[in-house]
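Continuing from the previous page...

OK, I double-checked the sequence for Polymer-forming cytoskeletal protein against my notes and this is the correct one:
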Amino acid sequence: MAFSRDPLDELVVPDGTEAQERDLVTDGDILVGSRSTVEFGVRGRNVLAGEAAEFGGAIEADGDCRLDMWCDVVENVLVGQDAYIGERVHIGGRLKVAGDLDIGDDVEIEEGFEANGWIVIRNPMPTIVFLFVYLKHLLLIGEEDTAQRLIDELVDDEDGEPDAEPLVIPRNATVGDDAWRVSTPATIGDDCRLHGNVRAETVDVGADCNVFGSLRARGDVTVGEGTRIHGDVTTRDGDVVIEPDARILGDVSCDDLEIGPDAEIDGTIRADGEITMGTTERERE
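Thanks. Re-ran it with the corrected sequence; updated structure tokens here:
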């Protein structure tokens, strides 16, 4: 991971993510930027939320959970390892922690809490600030290799193989059944099942997804092979690529349009530029 890259500059939905009836479920970590609203509950490995993030359901973390100051969780928070709860966090249900608990001042937990490990009452340093300060210190003293190893440990398995890609929700985003609204690019992996209209700078949807909503972007939109979009695909100033066997159950509006073999568009096509239609290769007789 490059140090110059902001990990919260893009909406990233990893492969296999599913929006269930009440929860957003993924196999990897969940990173939520400051002042974002997630109308679902979330279930993943480690859950980290920035300042003033809001969750409309429960949080279930198989690993650690870190909620920065002023976060609001409507239901329970269940943590498989350690939890770090910043000051003035509100939890509408119960907090249950299998490991240690660091908890800040003025935290409101409506149904109480329990932890099997140590309980320390203080103000945990915000996650992003802690990582930034520590990495900056390592770089200032010339420990570039140590800093890189720290990053590798955060994103890699013990055997060196990469973990599942994290679900990343950028700052000031809104994610819910009605819409996924971000001001950044959006990348959706393969085999995902999502509800809601996706609004982003650009949209890239992987293969074999089901999106029960429309896609709208300022820039380019790509719909992967075998994916179903149950709505319109619209760009303001970009192109649209619909890969083979994909299906759009609505209208398409764009500049240039590329349609792969066996792709289907049920609605109206409005293209200001060129329309390119791919064909399957025929065997020579």
